């Protein structure tokens, strides 16, 4: 298949002016200083090369400021490269910044015809498309209102409808779709899928990695203006999530209760929990874990006098407040006997069932009959779970089940219903 978008060693430089003032006096001083001090340069892209084949759907991912939006603006001709060559072969429609290409004083109807004219369509051709555009945007009541009075959601609905009904050969979509409500987002994604089946080349920038992994053939990962990875969607998204998890690792993986506020820690103090360690399968302290990997929660305690058969427990809550579980040593059948001095207990999870999200951890030490609380730390510890290779994304936990298709059961059920 032929390439419709080609970047060859493309770099884009911007000049930063940090000395601009607000008042005329500040601006005059800044103007004088500008001649004395060289301006600071910022490279949004450095030596980027890739090609996008006709009919493919490619996702661009990466953190904010990594160069994704600059790449789209170079692709659409809004910006010119400082170095290198950008080639685009085909009629391109873009959804970048909200309201780009719309005149605020003109009505929605007038802007539809204006955008059509910019793409080379006659008034008659746009008149044939108008009803479909207005219906898709759900703006029948507001199409003759000046767009300066539109809400952000109305703006993006009209912009998307115009772009996709102009029969683009290449469609470029930035995060602008996030402005619409959930129902319209699903509607847009469905229409993008239809365009893809028709052979439209689609370039998508979004932080919704599930959408990228589900819809895109290929993903290009940007970091600091350079391409880190370019390949199959699932693998690149998986590597990106692993990098994000590694970046999020902090010293909080070994956490102490010294910063507890009033109401977060209480107890008689005959046993105190001195530290909580979150460990991976190799015993390394971590703050971010992947669904399905081993995890160990270690409670380091000090018994300040001999205590007979204390119980250590923990509670995990999702960041939305939902209580996930509350295991303890008594439920687990572990009798510690008499404890004194320093020691540790561990809760070992062979395969972490928690799904992606943030979690908070409470820990406790108490008597078996709950008559005395030695030490309780209420939601003092935090950790994150990343998706990893697991594709489930709804709810709090995965049950680890498997699916099977039994066609024999369907046949026997049909025969039974016919006899009845």
TrEMBL record:
The record's InterPro entries line, in alphabetical order, gives: AAA+_ATPase (IPR003593), ABC_transporter-like_ATP-bd (IPR003439), ABC_transporter-like_CS (IPR017871), ABC_transpr_TagH-like (IPR015860), Bact_Polysacc_Export_ATP-bd (IPR050683), P-loop_NTPase (IPR027417), Wzt_C (IPR029439)
What organism is listed for this UniProt entry?
Answer: Ardenticatena maritima
Q: For the ABC transporter domain, which residue ranges apply?
A: 26-249
Q: Which molecular-function annotation in GO is an example for this chain?
A: ABC-type transporter activity
Q: What is this protein called?
A: Lipopolysaccharide transport system ATP-binding protein
Q: Which GO terms describe its cellular component?
A: membrane
PROSITE patterns given in the database record? ABC_TRANSPORTER_1, ABC_TRANSPORTER_2
Secreted as a keyword of this entry, yes or no, is no
What family does the database annotate? Belongs to the ABC transporter superfamily.
UniProt keyword annotations, A-Z? ATP-binding, Nucleotide-binding, Transport
Q: Which domain of life is it from?
A: Bacteria
**Pfam families cross-referenced by the UniProt entry:** ABC_tran, Wzt_C
């Amino acid at each position: 298949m032929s390439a419709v978008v080609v970047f060859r060693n493309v770099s884009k430089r911007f000049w930063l002016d940090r000395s601009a003032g607000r008042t005329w006096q500040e601006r005059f001083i800044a103007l004088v200083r500008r001649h004395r001090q060289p301006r600071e340069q910022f490279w949004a892209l450095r030596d980027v090369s890739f090609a996008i084949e006709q009919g493919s759907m490619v996702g661009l991912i990466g953190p904010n400021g990594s160069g994704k939006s600059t790449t789209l603006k170079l692709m659409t001709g809004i910006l010119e490269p400082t170095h290198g060559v950008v080639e685009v072969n085909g009629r391109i429609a873009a959804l970048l910044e909200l309201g780009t290409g719309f005149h605020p004083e003109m009505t929605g109807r007038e802007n539809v015809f204006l955008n059509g004219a910019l793409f080379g369509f006659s008034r008659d051709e746009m008149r044939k498309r108008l009803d479909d555009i207005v219906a898709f945007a759900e703006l029948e009541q507001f199409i003759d209102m000046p767009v300066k009075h539109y809400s952000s959601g109305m703006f993006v609905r009209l912009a998307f409808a115009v772009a996709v009904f102009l029969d683009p050969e290449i469609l470029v979509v930035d995060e602008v779709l996030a402005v619409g409500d959930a129902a319209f987002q699903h509607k847009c994604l469905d229409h993008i899928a239809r365009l893809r089946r028709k052979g439209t080349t689609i370039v998508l920038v979004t932080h919704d990695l599930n959408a990228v992994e589900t819809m895109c053939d290929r993903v290009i990962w940007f970091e600091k203006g350079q391409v880190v990875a370019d390949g199959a969607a699932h693998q690149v998204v998986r590597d990106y999530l692993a990098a994000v998890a590694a970046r999020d690792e902090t010293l909080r993986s070994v956490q102490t209760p010294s910063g507890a506020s009033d109401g977060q820690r209480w107890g008689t103090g005959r046993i105190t929990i001195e530290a909580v360690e979150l460990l991976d399968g190799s015993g390394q302290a971590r703050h971010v874990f992947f669904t399905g990997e081993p995890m160990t929660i270690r409670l380091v305690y000090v018994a300040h006098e001999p205590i007979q058969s204390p119980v250590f427990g923990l509670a995990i809550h999702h960041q939305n407040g939902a209580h996930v579980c509350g295991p303890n040593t008594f439920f687990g059948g572990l009798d510690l006997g008499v404890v004194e001095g320093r020691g540790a207990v561990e809760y070992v999870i062979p395969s972490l069932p928690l799904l992606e999200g943030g979690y908070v951890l409470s820990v406790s030490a108490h008597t078996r009959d709950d008559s005395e609380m030695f030490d309780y730390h209420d939601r003092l510890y935090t950790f994150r779970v990343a998706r990893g290779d697991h594709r489930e994304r709804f709810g709090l936990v995965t049950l680890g089940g498997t699916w099977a298709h039994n066609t024999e059961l369907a046949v026997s059920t049909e025969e039974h219903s016919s006899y009845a």
